[in-house]
Amino acid sequence: MLKGFRDFITKGNVIDLAVAVVIGAAFIAVVNAVVEGLSTPLIAAIFGEPDLNEVGTFTINGAHFSIGLILTAMINFLLVAAAVYFVLIAPMNSFRESQAKVAEEEPQAPPEDLLVLQEIRDLIRDRRNAI
Q1: Model confidence over 11-26: pLDDT tens digits?
Q2: For residue 55, what is the enclosing H or E element?
Q3: Domain at 2-130, CATH class
Q4: What is the DSSP letter of 63?
Q5: What does the domain layout of the chain look like in residue ranges?
Q6: In which element (H, E) is residue 114 found?
Q7: DSSP readout, 63-110?
Q8: How confident is the model at residue 98, as a pLDDT?
Q9: CA 26, CA 36: separation in Å to the nearest integer?
């Protein structure tokens, strides 16, 4: 039973998932800093309030509606998506492209059967020259 658990834990997928969760948790701090350091001051500068929660509010029959709450969530989502794109996705795409260029530039070794044929050709040519 313990061996099965150990095998499950040491599989690559579980370890990769654990690393992704840890990195994701650490990245939350970066995203929160971008949202709090950029989003909140930007909204405050434009609308005079730190968020849009009270913008476009109205009440109908005791039900409180807030369009600003939706706008705040949408702006925060766009800022988080932009932070993820520019901090993670764009650099990773650039890195992958540079790695692909390096892989393309490296000449690939000819297949083994082609090498054997070249050796046979060279041996035949050497015999002809010897005669």
Answers
A1: 767 777 777 888 888 8
A2: none
A3: mainly alpha
A4: E
A5: 2-130
A6: helix 112-130
A7: EEEEHHHHHHHHHHHHHHHHHHIIIIIHHHHHHHHHHHHHHHHSPPPP
A8: 86
A9: 16
